[in-house]
Every structure is written in C-alpha cells, then in structure tokens.
Amino acid sequence: MSGFVRKTLVVAAALSISGTAVAQDSIKMGALATLEGAFTVLGEDGMRGVKMALEEFGYEAGGKKIELITGSSDASPDSAVRAARKLVEQDGVPILIGPLSGSEGLAIKDYAKTQPDVTFLNGTSAAQDTTLRAPAENFFRFSTDGAQWMAGLGEYAYNEKGYRKVAVLAEDYSFPYTQVFGFLEPFCRLGGEAPIDARFWVPIGNKDYSSVIAALPDDVDAIYVALGGADAVNFLTQFEQAGGELPLIGGSITVDQSVLGSKGRTRQFVVGTPSAGPVSDTWDDPRWAAFVAAYQKQFPDGFPSPSLFAHGYYINTKAALLALNEVGGDLSDGGKKYREALSNLEFDTPTGMVKLDERREAIADIFLTEVIEGPDGNLLNKTIKVIPQVNQTLGVPYEKFLEYGQVGRENPSCE
Amino acid sequence: MDTDRLFNKSNPFAAIPAWSWIIGLLLILYPSFASDFFTYQIGAYSLLLGTVALSLMMLAGYGGMVSLAQLTVAGLAGYLMAILGDNSVGVMGLGWPWWLAVIVSVFAAAIFSAFIGAISVRTEGIYTIMITLAIAVAFFYFVRQNYTLFNGFTGFAGVEPPTLFGIYWRDPVPFYYLSLAVATGFVGAVLNASRSTFGLSLMAIRDNPRRMRALGYNVAAHRIAAYFMSGIIAGTAGVLLVWFNGRISPGTVGVDVVIDILVIAVVGGLRHPIGPFLGAIAFVLLENFAIDLIDRERFNTVIGLAFLLVVIFSPDGILGLWKRLRPKLRLGKSVPSAAAGTTPTDSHVSESVKEV
User: Fold this and answer.
1) Model confidence pLDDT, tens digit, residues B274-322
2) Which range among A178-187, B244-253, B276-285, B328-337 shows the weakest confidence by mean pLDDT?
3) Which of A87, A189, B124, B314 has its CA 20 to 30 A from that of A327?
4) Which residues pair with A60 in a beta bridge?
C-alpha cells in the first residue's frame, strides 16, 4: 500500500515538474460553455468552435503552445462565475473565452472587473448591457449582441411582408429581451404595432404552450417568436397541432440549425419564416463555404452546418489567437499590450470583416434569412440580404441610443 | 466559543480531544498555506454549503424530519438581503443599514422555516419530503415569475457585504474566517442543543412520537421549534451565500441545488454536525475538479458515481466511513461504536432517506 502511494507521489511530482517546464513556453487558454443543463447541445457546439480556431492555428500562437482548459456552467450566472473563478484563480488562465448565454455574460462582465490582469473574450452571450452600460475594460465581444442580430428584420417584416401588427412570444430573460428590442425598434418606428397584452413571456424550459396558443389574438398578422433549442421545437410542434395558421417571424436561435435539424412534422410549416442573425447557412461566399467544410470535416457528429454558437466561439477564439500573434505571445505586463492589440484588431471572418467599437463590442455583418427546403430535404436558411457592418447602437449615436432605455418586457412600448 | 463546555466529560468526543484541536488548528491556519482560490471558492463555499446542510442534518438527524426546503429558507434570506439592502439592478433595494437587513432577513427566514414546519410536522417520512419539495419548487417558480419584488429570471446583482473595521469582507481570507466562525458557532450550538432537554425530547419524539404525546409533550410544538432553529442556521448561511456570490437569482434556489443540499447531508452523514461539512467539502472538490479528471462530457457522471459509491459502501456517509476505519487504525482509545456519535442509532433517518 505505502509502496503504491510512494510510487504515485513520485509520478505526480514528476508530472508537476514537467508541467512547469512546459508552462514556460505555453499559454493557458480557458474556454467556458454550458456543458450541462438546458443548453448542453448549444454549449457543445460552442466548444467545437473553440477547437476549430485552435486547430486552424495548430494550437500555437505568438510562438507559444496553447493549452486549452475547459469549464462548464449550467446557464445560471452563479455557475458561470464559479467556473470562471476556477479557471482564472486555480488554473491561472490569462485568457478566458466564454460564456454562452445572456445572463451569464452580465455576471462574467462583473467578475472581469475584479480580475484586471485577465483578458475575457465573449463566447456567444448576447445581452445588450454586457458591453453597452458600465462595460468592463477587459471584456471583449467579437460576436455581436442580440439586438444587432435582428438588424433589418423589422424593416423586412413591415415593408416586404406587409405585417402591421404582431404578437410576441419569447423566453423571459435578458437575451430574448435584447432580441425583441432589436426587432421591434425599427418595426414600431415604421408604424408597426405590438400591443403589450399580446406579448407572451415564458420561462426557459417551458413545455406546454397550449395556454399561450389559445390566448393569441386573432387580429395580428404574424407572431414574432424568440425561443431557443427545445423550447422552439416544443412550441412549433404544438402550434402546428393546434392548427395555427399565423405566419412566424423567427429570433436568431428559433429557426437555426439546432431547431431545423430536429426531426418531426414541423418541417413544412416553418418554410418561409424570415429571421436574422450572425450566420446564414447558405451564404454563397467562399469564406463561409470553407468554414462549413472545415467544421464538417473536423466534427462528423456535429450539426449539418455550424450553428451561431460554433461561429461565435470560433470568432472570439480566433481574435484571441490573432492578438497573441501580434504581441508575440507576450503577456508579461498583465496583458496590457495584448488588450491594446485586441482593441485595434480588425480581421476577416467566415462572415465578413469584424472590428470593435470603443466599448469593445463587435461591428459586423448581419444576415437576413428565410427558411427554405434544401435540395436533399434539409431545412436551411436562405440568405436574403447581408446588412453590412451593424454596430451596437444600430446606427444611432451612443447618447441617443441610451435614451431608448434598458431592454425589457415593455421596451419599446410601440404606442 | 466555550471549549470546556463543548468538550466536557459527557461528550464522547472528549475521548479524542487531540483530533478536535488539530482539526481546529488546521482550519484556522488553512488560509496561510492555501491559495485565494482554495480559501474562498473551496474553503468558504464548503463551509457555507455545509452550514445549510447542517440545518438539514439537525432536522433529519435529531428530529427525523427530512426537509428539502432548507436551501429555500437560505434563499429567502439571501433575497431579502438584496431587497432590503442595496443592489445594482435598480429593482427594490430599500437601502437599509446592513445590520438591520441581516437581522430582519435571518429572522424572516426563521419564521418562514417555522411556517414550513407548521405545514409539514403532522406528516412523516416521504410525505414530509413531498411537502417541503413542493414548497421549494413553488418558491423557485414564484421568484422566477415575480418581477415587482424578486426581479424574475435576472434576480439581483451587486449585493455587497459591509466594509467593517477597514476590512472588505468579501476578500478571500476575511470571508473565510467569517464563514468559519459562523459554521463553528452553529456546530457548537447544535451539539449543545442536542444535549439539552429540548434536544433530548426532540430525539425522543423522533424515536417514538406516540409515547411522547402520551407523556404530555406537545409534539408539534417541539418540531416547529426545531424548524425555527434550523431556519436561523439556514438563514444566516443564506445571508453569507448572497455576500459570497454578490448576486442571487432563481438559479440559486433551483430544484437541482435543493437536491444538492440533500446529497451533501446524506453523503457527509446525518449522525453528527460535522457530517454535512465533510459532505460539502467532497461535493465542492468534485464539482470543481471532476472536469479535470475526465472528458468534459462525462464529468457529471464522475460526481454521481463517487456519491453512489460512498452511499453504497457506507450508508452513514463519509462520517460512517471514518467511524468504520477508526477501530482498524487503532487511533486513540477504541470507542464503542454505539457511543461514536452523539445520537442513538437512528433507523428512521436512513429509512426516509432510502425513500428519496
């Protein structure tokens, strides 16, 4: 017994020595995603994005090896902060990529303020206030926020589709608030209506939508639906079974690959649903085609086409690596130079050029899409239009944009 | 804490005082050799979860009442701190001074706990579990959907501990000692209470409520009083928990966390107040480091398997494992196993736990 213990200790000591030897010319990078709970599938795709970027760089940047350490949360802010704390304070990562969902992002931003020497890059969390109000100096978001993702959709629904009055169905937390705001702001400015009593807010993980479906008013032209993952699948199935005939308008993760890829009869029913987001499955651009091919090759068991989670994590990881190259892997000054390099970074992604504004929020291209049936029976998002270089304030000056108020259930009021 | 009274002759632990002293010394010196992460996220967090589980251990171990609503009681105190004190969300935040908010929060939590007790004391075993679980789930959904008072899904952020004597109490080392003091105080209080008339009659009620009723004891009142006391423990832990996280949201009081507390208490052992803390340490270590041991998609399986093993090989949890090993190691005087815990053998607890 004691012999075994001694042997183990020797091996452990040897390992830790070799560990420190390697640490001299390697940089630890933390990646945090939801690998448990309701968003597990989305978190796994996020991690695929991180690995794609690292693979592309051969796990090397700035002349140093990159060592990836993963952390997991369950989409609650508490668990995200705990996982981040473990990665930063215990594993000692100087760079952290993540988290995945909106309220987690707000919590990580607050945590970032207590760790000024660590550089935080967003995963795919897309709540507006992560960078808009009281941003953290060391939190960077190369993926855009939920309101930016809606760019062009409100105008499209009003002008092209001719909708004048919509009902809203969304999950009850910061990310859908941001999406609803992004859709309604231009829609209502053009003269559209979205009565407060026709807005339905359901908890994440809601299974039964029959009461919502029964309460939908008759006099609306369409329903704007911002639900994600299993919630979206459940609603679409039940809405069809209830004989719902109203056309839909989709949030960014309502008709994305994680929903369209699901089996069932909802398929025909969602064809023609307009939506908008940071990716479009069918964009005929060589950069996107190469990205999809690389994804499919590296992850045969992944989605048919990378979701916006793989995309967001990929872009943020790539930004982290590009900036590391720029400073030659030098983080000795607590990452000051590194963060400056990040702030000034402008690079080409599978979805066009990305750069940051002064609050370290991305300015990037957004895709207006519509669901179609692909040649092999797969449902895909057809690109209708690319809206170039959307910024966080949607083209309005910063001060004026703040006057719109914080996103929430009744913003904008559309009266 | 009066150590003479704690470790007097009537205490079976008097047989091994050296251990208690060594453990105490280790706990006090811990921050000097542990990193900030280990002091705060492992040390202090274990102490907090252990304190919540202690309130359950007290009810289950001495009273035979397995309540799943202990974390809910702690959560209520945490929410009240955010509502009565300050927060950065802009909802509620009445700005009361911290000491008044603490007193009111803890007291309200204790009243809430007594209320839960009043509803559930006339039931036994699995029915108590069902009622308290229902309360926990109802509280979770209530805070998630109430926006005027509890700010719904987002909950509250920016809840700060006070800066007292020039010390910011969320810094790892001060917070660790604060948690340690609170935990030790409550362990001492629970040990003391277990030897008091009240504690003894509570245990007697657990073992045979009918006979106690026949003897003229008010069984329900005793149980409700026990709920009130456990509410004070859980409420205090809840206040510390919200200072620890700086935030509270429905996820903090979710059903999975409620179950975690039961797991901690059962894995640690329900026979002695130290048990919940052992369980909490094991839980926090696994929660933090299981992801390093194995493929990221499987680490929750490791946590589950580890706890399954503990419960299979020692129905009394880690505490029971230690009791079983001690005679083999021949440390100190061998203590007859019946006197190893402070409570008589208790079939009731393991029964109701099995029913879960």
Assistant:
1) 889 988 998 888 888 877 777 656 667 777 888 788 878 877 778 777 7
2) B328-337
3) A87
4) A65
Radius of gyration of chain B (CA): 20
- A387 burial level (CB within 10 Å; 0-12, 13-18, 19+): middle
Residue with tokens 């149980």: B223
Q: Which residues of B touch A69 (CB under 8 A)?
A: 292
Contact B80, B105 (CB under 8 A): yes
ipTM of the complex: 0.70
Q: First vs last Cα of chain B: how many Å apart?
A: 36
pLDDT tens string A168-182: 999 888 889 999 999
Cβ pair A259, A309 in contact under 8 A: no
pLDDT of amino acid B107: 94
Distance of CA B31 to the CA centre of its chain: 22
Q: How far, in Å, CA of A197 to CA of A212, rounded?
A: 12
| Per-residue tokens: B3 | 């150590």
Q: Which domain CATH number covers B239? A: 1.10.3470
Q: What is the DSSP letter of A99?
A: -
Where do the structural domains in chain A lie, given as residue ranges?
26-145+286-363, 148-283+366-402
What's the length of chain A?
Answer: 415
- Tell me if the bond preceding A99 is cis, omega within 30° of 0: yes
β partners of residue A274: A370
E-only strand ranges, A273-393 = 274-277, 346-349, 352-356, 362-373, 379-390
The first and second tokens of residue A198, run together, are: 């026709």
Residue contact B158–A110, C-beta within 8 A? yes
Reduced to 3 states, what is the DSSP secondary structure of residue A163? coil
CA distances from B80 to A411, B120, B258 (A): 28, 24, 19
CATH architecture of A26-145+286-363: 3-Layer(aba) Sandwich (3.40)
Q: Which two tokens stand for residue A189?
A: 């400015």
Residue B345: domain span: 3-355
Work out how many CB contacts closer than 8 A connect A with B.
77
Checking if the pLDDT of A135 tops 50, the result is: yes
Q: Which two tokens stand for residue A101?
A: 């969902």
Does domain A148-283+366-402 match CATH 3.40.50.2300? yes
Nearest Cα residue to B73 out of B139, B131, B27: B139
Residues of B in Cβ contact (< 8 Å) with A103: 153-154, 249
The predicted pLDDT at position A133 comes to 85
| Optimal mutation site among B39, B260, B291, B300, interface A, most CBs of chain A within 10 A | B291
Supply the DSSP symbol for A144.
P
Q: Which member of B246, B247, B296 has the closest CB to residue A70?
A: B296
Within 8 A of B287 by CB-CB distance, chain A residues are 82
User: Which one of B40, B249, B256 has the shortest CB-CB distance to A77?
Assistant: B249
- Which residues does B104 contact at the CB level (< 8 Å), separation at least 6? B80, B84, B96
Q: What is the pLDDT of residues B130-177, one digit of tens each?
A: 999 999 999 998 998 888 888 887 788 888 888 878 778 878 888 899
| Integer Cα distance of A234 and A280 in angstroms | 23
* B294 → chain A, closest CA residue: A70
Q: Which pLDDT belongs to residue A291?
A: 93
Nearest to A172 among B35, B153, B246 (CB): B153
Give the pTM. Answer: 0.80
Task: Please count the structural domains in chain B.
Answer: 1
- Residues from chain B that touch A101, judged by Cβ atoms under 8 A, are none
Whole-number percent of chain B with pLDDT over 70: 86
